[in-house]
Design a protein that fits this description.
3-stranded antiparallel β-sheet; alpha/beta; elongated
């Protein structure tokens, strides 16, 4: 199918997409990325890293004839510390710094033509295949990161569970996500506006969540010179691209094809705009009399480190509430303007109506005079 006219320019020059992968050591992050890119993008480490390190790497792919500049942002060392609060804040800080770069670029009088947008469009969170429930660290991470990025939960190394165990585990995870009100990316659709194919596709993807991931960097000869990506076990093989064995193929297609544009649009139109509103409103509040010590964005906060600023900022829940209030205030002002315009139009219509009535009355009087004059002349 030929690309839509509005997208031809993007298709010609290619697309940029940035994916962050987060999960504890041993959950299959590295194997997933290498399977996704069909090359060794990330290196396996033999020892567990003590501290979180955020490492972006860019690869060039082609999907359905479209060139994609894919940046993978890995997070080795996540979950290795007893207290993961620093890791949470470091990831949130990284997400927000990419938004700050966009905000600064938008504020320039002369834009940089070579500026690269490094905002994270999707974050895959790898949940260990325990078969039980979400852990506190899983809940807290997704809850903190969801206001800043499209979080997609995955079960790493899902072939460690039987089909029955996997189905039950998926159900419990989604129940936990709903119970704790975690706004993960759930492949949204609008029954009234979207076509049947979109609704069916998104419903199917939503039903697969969290995605059961099996990855393999090796190809296995299954006979007749045919090689497939799979993992071999004494009892048989698990095929990476077989939808009956793994959700890998559906997730890859969603990320790099069917939902790439949607993920980018939500990042820009919703997540970034919310952050931009919050950031600018905090700056304005600081200029309107908040104390320097209390406001991390005020001029007197220049000696604070980025970590101090991040920790001093309000929590994501408060940010979301503030954003809603700002949007409500903006809507209220717009409604008032519309009411003023409506009243003005009504007054103008009333005045015009009065003018027309006066003219009609004048015409009647003139017509009567002409008739009287005509009768007088004939007499």
């Amino acid at each position: 199918m030929a690309p839509a006219p509005s997208r031809r320019k993007n298709v010609k020059k290619g697309l940029q997409f940035t994916l962050m992968v987060v999960g504890a050591s041993g959950t299959g992050r590295t194997t997933f990325v290498n399977t996704l890119c069909e090359t060794n993008v990330l290196q396996h480490t033999s020892s567990e890293q003590a501290d979180l390190k955020i490492k972006p790497v860019t690869v060039e792919l082609e999907e359905e004839g479209v060139r994609i500049s894919l940046t993978i942002v890995d997070t080795p060392g996540f979950g290795s510390a007893i207290d993961s609060s620093d890791s949470f804040q470091e990831i949130v800080g990284y997400l927000e710094r990419q938004y700050d770069d966009i905000l600064a670029e938008e504020s320039r009088i002369k834009r940089n033509p070579r500026f690269r947008d490094n905002r994270i469009h999707a974050l895959l969170y790898f949940i260990p295949p325990s078969g039980h429930y979400l852990r506190e660290i899983d809940i807290e991470l997704m809850r903190r990161l969801s206001p800043r990025v499209n979080v997609i939960p995955c079960i790493g190394k899902a072939d460690g569970l039987t089909p029955t165990e996997l189905a039950a585990f998926k159900k419990r995870i989604m129940e936990d996500i709903e119970y704790y009100g975690i706004p993960v990316y759930n492949f949204p659709y609008d029954v009234e506006e979207d076509d049947e194919e979109t609704i069916a596709d998104n419903s199917e993807l939503r039903a697969l969540m969290p995605f059961a991931i099996v990855g393999s960097e090796e190809e296995i000869d299954i006979g007749g010179g045919e090689f497939i990506r799979a993992r071999r076990y004494p009892w048989g093989i698990v095929e990476v691209d077989n939808p009956q064995h793994s959700d890998f193929a559906r997730l890859r297609s969603a990320l790099l094809n069917t939902h790439l544009t949607d993920l980018k649009e939500i990042t820009h139109d919703f997540l970034y705009e919310n952050y931009r509103t919050e950031k600018l409103s905090r700056t304005v509040n600081g200029l309107n009399g908040s104390s320097d010590s209390a406001n991390p964005l005020s001029p007197g906060a220049g000696n604070l480190s980025p970590q101090d600023i991040s920790s001093a900022s309000i929590q994501p829940e408060d940010m979301a509430t503030q954003s809603v209030r700002l949007k409500e205030e903006q809507l209220r002002r717009e409604e008032e303007k519309l009411r003023e315009i409506e009243l003005k139009v009504q007054r103008e219509i009333s005045e015009k109506r009065q003018e027309l009535l006066a003219r009609e009355e004048s015409l009647k009087v003139l017509e009567q005079r002409l008739q009287a004059q005509s009768m007088h002349d004939h007499a």
